[in-house]
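We read letters as residues; the fold follows as tokens. A sample entry reads:
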Amino acid sequence: MNPSTIEFFVMVARLGSISRAALELGIEQSTITRHIGKLESDIGVRLFHRSGRGVMLTDAGRVFLARAQEVVQ
């Protein structure tokens, strides 16, 4: 698991938006989307509910966020 992927996940979770996270991090939205998709595939669970208004953490996403924040710090 790439440390950048964890950072991207935490930023998206905090902001509730992949596009806002991309702006904040100064990277392409597609890069974050690709990293989050690979992360979800690697761990075998959906971390976000996606909608036209942004993203919301799933139950598994909330559990993962607690661990990810420890890693980022």
User: Anything to note?
Assistant: The CA atoms of residues 34 and 68 lie 18 Å apart. Strands lie at 48-51, 54-57. The radius of gyration is 11 Å.
